[in-house]
Design a protein that fits this description.
Blueprint (H helix, E strand, L loop, with lengths): L1 H12 L1 H14 L10 H24 L14 H4 L26 H12 L1 H28 L1 H26 L32 H8 L19 H5 L24 H11 L1 H26 L1
Helix pairs in contact: 2-3, 3-6, 5-6, 6-7, 7-11
């Protein structure tokens, strides 16, 4: 656990650098195919590895983002933090910003985050399904290259069967249709968040608190600061709240998707979850039937 905490701290301290490296590696994958033997496999492998690592990074950083960053700042936030001056009314604080630092979470993120936080089984299975989606093309390319086309189709059948089973289990957990992707997705660039706004990992003391502890404390009488409402009218500040309400004032995540209440709904969702598997089975059956017909025609002649 100490190693994980150290890695989280390293990631939090170097968010911008990590994002730059990920973007650079992702661009490299566009130039690898055709450069050397098996370059397409190397490019897809690098892309799959980068997708898995980026997903892990998003999961770690998501825990360090305060939900309040998607809400407009308090209209008197800057006024409370204004420096003291000699006069009581001489200091006119600047108007507080009314635009949230981060966009509000989408309905997809709210729903998938709710189930990921509530159900450990959903969290593990959804991660497994998403990881399989990242690496399935790489596995298919490697098996086709090393073991032939027939084994490739066997692998595709196994992967689609595995994914169908996971979707059915997720459906049984939520009693609702399975969203794809089933995990929360990145909706903003973590590198745009100021470093002091990111929560440190557990057990790590924030640097800002350490700096405040080293600074001498002011023991003089407190001075009242009157905020300037003319520069930050309350009405214009509350307007962004129409689209950035706190989580407790929004519709419950379970109400975002209807529950599968009738047998028809359940059958339709089962068919949707296994549609790709059925298509693969039909393709394999068609290929086997065609090969059998060719063999029979050769034997007759």
């Amino acid at each position: 656990m100490a190693l994980v905490a150290a890695y989280e701290q390293l990631l939090v301290d170097n968010v911008s650098t990590v994002r730059t490296v990920e973007s650079a590696i992702r661009n490299v994958t566009w130039f690898l195919p055709g450069r050397f033997a098996d370059a397409d496999i190397a490019s897809e492998g690098l892309y799959a590895l980068l997708s898995v690592v980026s997903s892990v990074h998003d999961d770690l950083l998501e825990k360090r983002i305060p939900p309040a960053l998607s809400l407009p700042p308090h209209p008197f936030a800057l006024a409370a933090a204004a420096p003291e001056t000699a006069g009581l009314l001489s200091a006119v604080p600047p108007a507080a910003p009314i635009t949230p630092l981060l966009p509000p979470a989408s309905e997809h993120t709210r729903y998938t985050r709710y189930w990921s936080d509530r159900s450990p089984a959903y969290r593990r299975l959804s991660r497994a399904l998403q990881t399989t989606t990242y690496i399935e093309l790489l596995l298919e390319m490697v098996v086709k290259k090393k073991a032939g086309d027939r084994n490739r189709w066997r692998l595709v059948l196994g992967i689609e069967g595995f994914k169908s089973i996971i979707r059915l289990i997720l459906m049984s957990i939520t009693r609702r249709p399975v969203l794809l992707p089933p995990t929360p997705q990145r909706e903003f660039d973590f590198a745009l968040i100021p470093q002091d706004k990111i929560l440190p990992p557990e057990g790590v003391k924030p640097k800002q608190d350490e700096e405040n502890a080293q600074q001498p404390q002011h023991t003089g009488p407190a001075r009242a600061v009157i905020p300037s409402l003319a520069k930050a009218p309350l009405r214009s500040h509350l307007y962004p709240l129409l689209t950035s309400l706190p989580e407790e004032h929004l519709a419950h995540p379970l109400s975002l998707l209807p529950e599968l209440s009738t047998p028809g709904d359940i059958v339709a969702e089962v068919l949707s979850s296994t549609a790709v598997l059925v298509q693969v089975l039909l393709l394999i059956h068609t290929m086997v039937s065609g090969e059998s017909a060719v063999v029979e025609s050769k034997l007759r002649h």
